[in-house]
Design a protein that fits this description.
Peripla_BP_I, lipoprotein, alpha/beta, about 180 residues, Galactose/glucose-binding lipoprotein
Length: about 180
């Protein structure tokens, strides 16, 4: 009866409820969040302009439109923008681990050599992080020629994560989320 559901992560339950008559929910655009995380790493490793494949199309054709992300120059940070999920568009959100089509093209490994990245997720038991964000990261890492080792924390103890970094010299980059 058009009652709004609140599932800020636009999780599968909230999206499925829209098909049954609920009003809508909000998506954090996790697909764009995951892409931005790994794309910034890829760009830094390649020594290219940080906006490559984000606001500026890369050689594979990957580019985001300005309605799905923003860049805060003062904070030097990219952010995915929230999007309303309604009866008109909910079917686009039924698979929360699907890569975002405008940035789904494989990079050429001759131009973008495979690099090894150590990336931690501060709380492996968090529903959004473990069932949406990390699977999306895994879907993007191959497209961006990144060999990512994912480390899941317990959400409480930083040493639970840092103690698992045994040989830092084997990695080209680190993404640390505490």
């Amino acid at each position: 009866n058009k009652v709004p559901t609140f599932g800020y992560d636009a999780n599968n339950d909230a999206v499925a409820a829209i098909a049954e008559g609920y009003g809508g929910t909000i998506s954090q655009h996790a697909d764009v969040q995951a892409y931005l995380t790994l794309r910034v790493i890829r760009n830094a490793l390649d020594g290219v302009d940080i906006d490559t494949g984000i606001g500026t199309e890369d050689e594979a054709g990957n580019v985001l439109s300005e309605d799905v992300y923003t860049y805060n120059e003062e904070q030097r940070s990219y952010y995915a923008l929230n999007v309303a999920v309604t009866a008109d568009n909910y079917q686009e959100f039924t698979d929360s681990t699907k890569v975002y089509e405008p940035v789904s093209k494989q990079l050429d490994e001759k131009e973008h050599a495979k690099k090894k990245v150590w990336l931690n997720i501060y709380n492996a038991s968090d529903n959004f992080l473990s069932s949406t964000y990390q699977p999306l990261l895994k879907n993007y890492d191959d497209l961006l020629n990144l060999d990512v080792e994912y480390i899941g924390g317990d959400g409480q103890t930083e040493s639970n994560i840092t103690n698992r970094l045994g040989n830092p010299s084997q990695y080209d980059a680190f993404a640390i989320n505490m």
